[in-house]
Amino acid sequence: MLSGLSRKRIISGFVAGMLGLLFVGLGGWWFTLSLCLIVHLALLEYFRMAEFTGIRPATKTTLVACQLLLLTTHFGIGEGFTSFISAGVLPLTGAAICGWLLLQPKTGSIADIAASIFGLFYLGFLPSHWIKLRNITHLDLTQSSPSLTHGLSGLFNIGFVMTFITCLMIVAFDIGSYVFGQIYGRRPLSPISPSKTIEGAIAGFLSAISIGAISGFILEWKMGVFIGAMLGMLVAFFALVGDLTESMMKRDAGLKDSGNVLPGHGGILDRIDSYLFTPAIVYYVIILIIPLIN
């Protein structure tokens, strides 16, 4: 029988997954604005953790900077002047954050600057790659029959397909790690997160690799099973890095969860930590490596 906490975790996870699938499918501004909302809530939790350690980050300035970064990324999709605006937001807003801390009655410390700039990178620059990934339309990543290629362009573009596959690999890693770790886990993976086990991590890696290999086979990439498996391994690795990074911050702040928004999961940041480092990896593999192989 499932415990009350496990039941809440499954239900809230299912609802969050369905909403995520809906906005990924809608794409466009629906996807970008939903990402903006998630980032805003996650940033509030991140700054709450930072403040628990005595750090005084530039909260409001960084919140605005991250929203600007996401919105200009959406406007800057493709070529032209808007793409340069998007590229300039990160250094300009980073300088603005430092300037804001300098103007405070009590000048900011190295820790204040570092926490603010890391917040911009962690919950601004990294998530912006979800927008870039979802809006890929100009690449033909398949070596498939004309019917499949036409089906992809007619129903969903390649940006949707790769965003969906990436999310599926992350979900496979999370579920594989959690379920197998709960049943068979014996050896702790890291003192940063004692609940995670080596056995669970291995199962998570194998789950993500399997999804990647199947995807590469279906899309008929050259060496599709191998390339897909490699992509799955990278996604699993950086999902784990994201998970442990957030655990490290919670441990430093002395908190069990980043928040209590999602029943059974904790806060928004607890739910999305595996989704932060992964989109940049997938995006650059897709635009740089797979076209060369094909």
UniProtKB/TrEMBL annotation:
It is found in: Membrane. It comes from the Bacteria. Keywords: Lipid biosynthesis, Lipid metabolism, Membrane, Nucleotidyltransferase, Phospholipid biosynthesis, Phospholipid metabolism, Transferase, Transmembrane, Transmembrane helix. It is an enzyme of class 2 (transferase). The keyword 4Fe-4S does not apply. GO terms for biological process: CDP-diacylglycerol biosynthetic process. The chain crosses the membrane at residues 12-43, 81-103, 110-131, 151-180, 201-219, 225-242, 275-293. Its EC number is 2.7.7.41. Its main location: membrane. It catalyses: a 1,2-diacyl-sn-glycero-3-phosphate + CTP + H(+) = a CDP-1,2-diacyl-sn-glycerol + diphosphate. One of its GO terms (molecular function) is phosphatidate cytidylyltransferase activity. One of its GO terms (cellular component) is membrane. It is a multi-pass membrane protein. Pathway: Lipid metabolism; Phospholipid metabolism; CDP-diacylglycerol biosynthesis; CDP-diacylglycerol from sn-glycerol 3-phosphate: step 3/3. InterPro entries: PC_trans. It holds the Pfam family CTP_transf_1. Belongs to the CDS family. This is Phosphatidate cytidylyltransferase. The gene is cdsA.
